[in-house]
Amino acid sequence: MTGLSRLLIIAAAAGLGLGAWHPALGAGETRLYLRCKPDNDLHKVLLENKVPCARFDTPEQAIGGAPEGAGVLVLADEYPKTSLRDLTRKDQVANAAMARQFDKCRAEMLADDRKRPRQFIVLNAVPASDFARVRRDFPRSPNAGVEIAVAGTVSYLEQPRKSSDAGLKQFLQLAEQSDLPVVVQLDGECWWGARPELWNWWDTARPGYSPANRENVEWTGWSPDYAVKIAWRNWGRQIRLLPPPNLMGPRYRAACHAEMAALVPIVLDWWNGLLGERRELLIGLKVGWESSIGVNAWYYPDGNAMLGQPESRDPTYGVRGDQPPARGVAQIGYAAVKAAGLRQSGAITEADLAEVARRHLEDLARRAHELGMPRDRIFTHSAGWKEGELLYGAAVNDFSCPGWSFYRHAGAPAKDIGVRAALQRNTAPHWAAVEWLYQGPRQRAPWHDALVATLRQPGCRYLCIFNWSDIKDSPEILAAIRDVLVGRLP
Question: What angle do CA 216, 222, 226 make, to 5 degrees?
Answer without folding.
Answer: 60
